[in-house]
Automatic annotation (TrEMBL):
This is Porphobilinogen deaminase. It is an enzyme of class 2 (transferase). Residues 224-295 form the Porphobilinogen deaminase C-terminal domain. Belongs to the HMBS family. Keywords: Porphyrin biosynthesis, Transferase. GO terms for biological process: protoporphyrinogen IX biosynthetic process. It comes from Hymenobacter sediminicola. Its EC number is 2.5.1.61. GO terms for molecular function: hydroxymethylbilane synthase activity. The lineage of its organism: Bacteria, Pseudomonadati, Bacteroidota, Cytophagia, Cytophagales.
Length: 315
């Protein structure tokens, strides 16, 4: 019997659901597992939006320390929370099958009218705030930090009329009954990796165990798409807090990956997008090509403006 696999995870209900999902898959493959909860900066610093916390990897850094010290064997992350580049001594071993990728509007009001003037939507995502300014100008946004349960409590208290969230998290937490609108992914293009679960490990983990874990957990079509999206994000030099977006899809019949990527200005006025496709073997180059096109067509200026605004507000 091989040794027990120690699975590192944040302690939120969603993170624990994802960790148990990984544990179930590994147990079905005949591996014993243990779940180890590690609190991250993003879990405790809740009084600021993520771009104000500054440090990269607010939801991943402490888990990566656990991988280095040998405290855990694998770390389970929401793929969208993983930095565009990870430390050299670590690797992303697997991406699990992606859930429906859309952003959704969640509310206790069954008759929620998205076009209502003055509608208040809760989100702390720079991407969602910018897209709402562009596609739902009648609405305003309010900061909504904290885990899903905390945000739903604030929603019930009336701090906002509705929340904008990833379908994946809402569904995994069984809140589907509160979904009032599914936002079209052609306009509210999701964040890189949205909907997938990423498994990270130390490069030094035993190769046979790595192969066993990869075989039990990786979803090849999702992995291909996320490789394209992450190459896009890396080229954009973006962390979690720039309003970039990317969605790759696999055309299995044609053996090609299609990538829709872009950048939106914080005020929603500029929406620079690019759609290209490539052979499955060329997904990294596809991500780079799409990002370079977006940067060349005004994306670089958007990023410069954001950097200037953040430096001014930090001064
Ligand atoms: N840190 C935010 C975060 N990271 C992963 C999810 C949802 C699950 C996913 O997209 O895979 C969420 C919440 C949200 O965006 O609504």
């Amino acid at each position: 019997m091989s040794r027990t696999i120690r699975i590192g995870t944040r302690g939120s209900k969603l993170a624990l659901w994802q960790a148990h999902h990984v544990a179930d898959c590994l147990q079905q493959a005949g591996l014993a597992t243990e779940i180890v909860i590690i609190t991250t900066k993003g879990d405790v610093v809740l009084d600021r939006s993520l771009d104000k916390i500054g440090a990269k990897g607010v939801f991943t850094e402490e888990l990566e320390v656990g991988l280095r010290t040998g405290h855990i064997d694998i770390a389970v992350h929401s793929a969208k929370d993983v930095q565009s580049s990870i430390p050299e001594d670590l690797e992303l071993l697997a991406f699990m099958e992606r859930e429906q990728v859309n952003d959704v509007v969640v509310s206790f009001h069954a008759d929620l009218d998205l076009q209502r003037p003055g509608l208040v939507l809760g989100t702390s995502s720079t991407r969602r705030k910018a897209m709402l300014k562009r596609f739902l100008p009648n609405a305003t946004t309010a900061e909504a930090r904290g885990n899903l349960q905390t945000r739903l409590r604030k929603l019930e208290e009336g701090q906002y009329d509705a929340l904008v969230l990833a379908y994946a998290g809402v569904h995994r937490m069984n809140y589907d009954g509160l979904i009032r609108h599914v936002l079209p992914e052609t306009r509210f293009v999701p964040a890189t990796g949205q909907g997938s679960v990423a498994i990270e490990c130390a490069r030094s983990l035993e190769p046979t165990l790595k192969a066993e874990l990869h075989h039990a957990l990786d979803h090849p079509a999702t992995h291909l798409c996320l490789a394209a999206e992450r190459a896009f994000l890396r080229t954009m030099e973006g962390g979690c807090s720039i309003p970039s977006f990317a969605l790759a899809t696999l055309d299995a019949a044609a053996g090609t990956v299609h990538l829709h990527g872009g950048l939106i200005s914080l005020d929603g006025e500029q929406f620079i997008e690019e759609m290209q496709h490539a052979e499955a073997s060329q997904v990294e180059a596809l991500g780079i090509r799409v990002a370079e096109s977006v940067l060349a067509r005004g994306g670089q200026q958007i990023l410069e403006t954001i950097r200037l605004q953040r430096n001014e507000s930090a001064a």
